[in-house]
Amino acid sequence: MDDAQKSLRYVTWVIAGTVVLLLGATIAISVFVTRSKAPRGLGKINSIYGEEISTIPTLSSRHVSQINSAALSSEGDPLLVPVFWNNEEGAFIIEIKLGKNWVALVVDTGSSHISAKGVDCKWKQCDGEICQETACPCAGNRGCNGTQFEPSGPQVGIDLNGDGTVTSESTLIYGSQQSSVTHYFESFEMYQLYLGCTDMVFETEFLNSRQLFKNLNPEGLHLVKFGPTTVHLVNKIQGTSTSNIFGLARGAEAGETVLLHSVFGKRPPLWSMVTTSERSGWIAFGALRCFGDPTYVPLVLPQEFKTFATQFYIVPVIAVYVNDRKVENNGTPRFIIADTGTTNSYGSTRFGSALGAVDWNEGISTVSFVVGDDNHICVLKYEPKDYYDPDGYYASSINVTESRTLDNFDEMFHGVNVFLMGVRLMNNIYWEYDIANNRLGIIQL
Hints:
Layout: H1 3-8, E1 11-13, E2 29-31, H2 61-64, E3 79-86, E4 91-98, E5 101-108, E6 114-127, E7 130-135, E8 169-174, E9 177-191, H3 197-202, H4 209-216, E10 223-238, E11 245-247, E12 250-251, H5 259-264, E13 270-276, E14 280-285, E15 295-298, E16 310-311, E17 314-322, E18 325-326, E19 335-338, E20 345-347, H6 349-357, E21 367-372, E22 377-382, H7 384-387, E23 398-399, H8 409-412, E24 418-421, E25 429-434, E26 439-444
Parallel strand pairs: 5-11, 6-10, 19-24, 20-23
Antiparallel strand pairs: 1-2, 3-4, 3-14, 4-5, 4-9, 6-7, 6-11, 8-9, 9-10, 12-16, 13-14, 13-25, 15-26, 17-18, 17-19, 17-21, 20-24, 21-22, 25-26
C-alpha cells in the first residue's frame, strides 16, 4: 500500500452541520490525526439560556384531536428532554450534565459522539494572513463559568476510525470548524421528565429546561445517568463556527462508544424528536404517541456512503413535485439526508436546474418530496411559509444553485445526487428514528 492509500485510511467524511455565518449550515468533514497527551468542583449551575423565552405554539386542529393523554412508548414512558432554538448556533440545543458542569450542545444527527469545548479552549480566526486567538465562546448564555466541559472521567486512546489505529488526540473538521481534541471516557446525566402529551404540546413561556423542571416538580427531578461514552474535549478551534455537538447518528465510529449505544445499551434503539418553528421542542428516547401513528419509510445505507464513519439517516426519494409538476428523474435527488445539525438545506446544482425546468419560484411555489419505496410512501409538502428563510437573505432556506449551495457539494457525496435536509425543513414534523428496524417514522404536523 503506497503513502497516498495509507493517508486515505485516516480520512472520513462526516456531516456535522454547524452554522457558518451567512450560510447558516455546513458539511462536516472529519479528519482524524494520531497524536498523544494527558488530564484537570462541581461548578455553580448557571442558566444556559439566560433570559431567552421559548414558546410552543398551538398545533393544527388536525393533530390536537389526536393528542393522547400521555407520552407513552410501547415499553412505557420514554425519557423526555426539552430542546431550545439558539440563534447564534442556528440549531436546537440540549442541556446535559457532562463531567463536572452543565453543558449546552447542538443536537446533531450528522455525527455520533459528544464534542464539547473545555475551560482553556482557544479560538483562532484568520482574515487572510492576519489571525487572532481568543477564548472559545459559549452559546446562549452571558458567561462561561460552570458551563464548559471539565472532565471527571479518564483520558483514553480510542480506535476512532475502526481501522486499528488508537489515538488519544485527534483533529476533527466540522465544516469550517477544525478542532484539536483529546478523548475522554465520560458519563453524562439528564433529568427524567414525565409529562403528558397535552402538557408537552401546550406548555408555553418557559425560560429554559431547568425552569420547566422547577415548575413541574418543586422538589426536583431525578437525574438519570448514562454512559460512559466517548467525549471529545475541544482544546483549540480554527474556523468560523465553534459548536458543541450532541451526536445522535447511527455510527461505526469507535464501535460501542457512540452516544446512542451509551443511551440504549443492549436495548433496541428508538428515539424521536419534534420541534415547533424556531422555538422549542422535545427529544424522547423512546416513541411519542402524541400525534397519531407515523408513516414509516426505510432508512438506507447506499453503497456510496459505506466509507463514511457515521451512518447518516438517509431515506430514498421517489419523486419531487413543484406545485403539481413532477421534476425530471435525472435531476431528482436519489436520497434525502436528515441532518438536525445543519440549519438550512442544500442540494446539487443538477437539482436546482431540474427545479427551474418546472418553474420553481422560491417564496411562491410549493415543493413536495415523495420519499420511501414501493411499499412505504410519505409525502413531505412544503408551502412557502414552511421553507422561508427567517434570516431574510433569500426567499427560502433551500439552496440549490451554484452561488448558494455548499462548495464541492457533489464531491462531498461522491457524485450522488442527494438533498441535505437541514433542521429548518424538519420543523413542525414528528420524526421517529427506529434504528432497530431501519426505518424513519414521519408525521407532518
